[in-house]
Amino acid sequence: IASGTNPTQMTIDLLNAMKPMQNKSKDICIGIKPNLVCASPADEGATTHPEIIEGIILYLHGEGFTNLKIMEGSWVGDSTRRAFKICGYEALAKKYSIPLIDLKDDTFITRSYKGLDIKICSSVLDVDYLINVPLIKGHCQTNITCALKNLKGLIPDSEKRRFHTLGLHKPIAYLNALIRQDLIIADAICPDPYFEEGGRPKKLNRIIAGSDPVLMDSYAAKVLG
Hints:
Elements: E1 2-3, H1 7-18, E2 30-34, H2 50-62, E3 68-72, H3 80-86, H4 89-96, E4 100-102, E5 108-113, E6 116-121, H5 122-126, E7 129-133, E8 137-139, E9 143-145, H6 147-150, H7 157-165, H8 169-178, E10 183-188, E11 206-210, H9 213-223
Parallel strand pairs: 2-3, 2-7, 3-4, 7-10
Antiparallel strand pairs: 1-11, 5-6, 8-9, 10-11
């Protein structure tokens, strides 16, 4: 856990302490998945701070990893491209020459877990190492959203709708059995503890790093009370 007001440096400090890329091939493809549920700036409490992503990029580049992709699919009804622009990711991608993958335009592959078929965006299955960068924030249906639920951005819009008809909890758990997140850097700088669209941000000034999404979500639940 890092505390402070400089998200980029806090992220670099966490990664330097963890050394998650030790003994990994420099040629691997690394996917970075923020939470850009809607097109609103991070200071409103709904989306991942681009400064955290910048810290991840600087760390990885410093360690010799250059095959990076930022991937996201905003919620149904909003434009990922608009979110990339308004949330500062378009400028970030241009600065570091990193592709932005809009998963709404992606093809999908169907995978099955315990008899439930789930469509997963193809680009997600092409990466060798997935860094999940969720927010610790409130949610109107699941009470909290963090590491587990953030993977919902990696499925097509039609599947997002179906998850809601299935009650969210079970399909999100099954999705996490099908997609492995290798590293989690959770944004708790100024999340909205009540609502996923933001609007009532609370200054917590924390970033949390780990590798276990259930442990991360348990911590998130504690932070949000």
